[in-house]
């Protein structure tokens, strides 16, 4: 029996009187590439914060790669094989790209590369990490910026380096929070192509938050999950979503983002 990479059952998260996530359930198979979309404030990032163990959930169950991850700490969830990125990309500005990859936040708390720097490793392991860093940069087709300072990068390049940093933990599942927000069209498309290749070639499952419905509908994703006001409004293939009037109305009603 093939177990889902991620199984979310009846997940609810309250902030005081505000129910930010309202009993959502979904599952994602290994190697599946799924988009998560919904209007501002509908609960997408909160869902990621719950899955990755950063927020204590109000109720529900989270299974990661066949294991019950409910109530686990972020670092424990990462050791199961699930890594995430953050909506606001944070890099060490005065370090080069390859150095940023060598000091990834090994625990999934807010990045604290100093702790990683202090953690000793054997020379052989350190050498292997350097080799891994260059192969990740090669995979993402950004070896030409390996020695640029992070402060010199464009927004899109920074997003790619952030994805590269997530890949350094050899994840089996990735949660990416708006990996192309603010990135110019052609580079945003290329980033999505790289993500598609990672799911197809390496079998890494992915759930990717994107705020632009028009953009995600044109990408090569297997499925799209649409959230609205803490709930799942619909899930289906891009074609199925396109045909759904509920989704169109939710978008037009909230933001008019659907074009
Ligand atoms: N730590 C928190 N404390 C209190 N309220 C929060 C907290 N985090 C999020 N919220 C609230 O929960 C709701 C969902 O927020 P969330 O950030 O998950 O939305 P989102 O779908 O990611 O939105 P965006 O598209 O703007 O990133 C919002 O009303 C937000 O204000
Ligand atoms: Mg968000």
Verbal overview:
This protein is α/β, with parallel strands linked by helices and 259 residues long. The chain has a single domain (6-254), classed as Rossmann fold. It contains ten helices and ten strands. It has helices spanning 44-51, 74-80, 97-102, 113-118, 123-139, 155-167, 185-202, 213-217, 238-242, 245-254; strands at residues 6-15, 18-28, 33-37, 59-64, 67-68, 82-84, 173-177, 205-209, 223-228, 231-236. The radius of gyration is 18 Å and the shape is globular. The relative contact order is 0.18. Mean pLDDT is 88; it is low at 107-111. Bound molecules: adenosine-5'-triphosphate and magnesium ion (MG). Magnesium ion binds next to helix 1.
Uncertain ranges? 107-111
Structural domain tally: 1
The total count of helices amounts to 10
Query: Strands of the largest sheet, in order across it?
Result: 6-7-8-3-9-10
CATH topology annotation: Rossmann fold
* CATH superfamily (homologous) name: P-loop containing nucleotide triphosphate hydrolases
Q: What CATH first level would be assigned?
A: Alpha Beta
- In the CATH classification, which architecture applies? 3-Layer(aba) Sandwich
* Structural category: alpha/beta
- What sort of overall outline do the alpha carbons produce when their principal axes are compared? globular
- Overall mean pLDDT score? 88
Radius of gyration: 18 Å
Cα(first) to Cα(last) distance is 41 Å
Oligomer, anyone?
single chain
> Could you give a short account of the major beta sheet?
6 strands, mixed
């Amino acid at each position: 029996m093939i177990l889902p990479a991620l199984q979310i059952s009846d997940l609810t998260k309250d902030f005081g009187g505000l129910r930010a996530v309202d009993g959502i359930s979904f599952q994602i198979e290994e190697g599946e590439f799924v988009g998560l979309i919904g209007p501002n404030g509908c609960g997408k990032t909160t869902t990621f914060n719950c899955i990755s163990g950063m927020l204590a959930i109000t109720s529900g169950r989270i299974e990661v790669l066949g294991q019950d991850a409910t109530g686990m700490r972020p670092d424990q969830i990462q050791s199961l094989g699930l890594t995430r990125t953050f909506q606001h990309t944070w890099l060490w500005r005065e370090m080069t790209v390859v150095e940023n990859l060598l000091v990834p936040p090994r625990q999934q708390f807010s990045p604290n590369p100093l702790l990683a720097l202090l953690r000793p490793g054997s020379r052989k392991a350190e050498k292997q990490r350097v080799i891994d860093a260059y192969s990740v940069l090669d995979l993402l087709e950004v070896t030409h910026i390996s020695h640029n300072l992070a402060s010199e990068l464009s927004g899109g390049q920074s997003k790619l380096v952030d994805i590269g940093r997530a890949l350094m933990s050899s994840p089996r599942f990735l949660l990416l929070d708006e990996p192309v927000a603010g990135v110019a069209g052609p580079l945003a498309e290329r980033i999505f192509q790289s993500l598609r290749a990672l799911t197809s070639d390496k079998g890494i499952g992915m759930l990717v938050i994107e705020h632009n419905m028009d953009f995600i509908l044109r990408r090569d994703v297997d499925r799209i999950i649409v959230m609205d006001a803490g709930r799942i409004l619909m899930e289906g293939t891009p074609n199925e979503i396109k045909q759904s009037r509920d989704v169109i109305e939710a978008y037009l009603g909230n933001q008019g983002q659907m074009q």
